[in-house]
Specification:
Layout: H1 2-21, H2 26-40, H3 45-62
């Protein structure tokens, strides 16, 4: 759960920075957010969560 919250916060910060610098407009940002919410409700969500956890574990073993 801690990984999910920190990844959520990091992704939110990245989106805010991209919005403020003009590299990302509000429309595409909202479309991506809606896509993420839709994807989270599908059967693919557990596989994505597992993949993110595996990558995070792999990165923590590097350092």
């Amino acid at each position: 759960m801690a990984l999910t919250v920190s990844l959520f916060v990091l992704a939110g910060i990245v989106v805010l920075v991209l919005l403020r610098t003009g590299y990302l407009r509000l429309g595409p940002a909202l479309a991506a957010a809606l896509f993420g919410f839709t994807l989270a409700s599908t059967g693919l969500a557990p596989a994505i969560t597992t993949g993110i956890s595996n990558v995070a574990g792999w990165l923590s073993n590097l350092g």
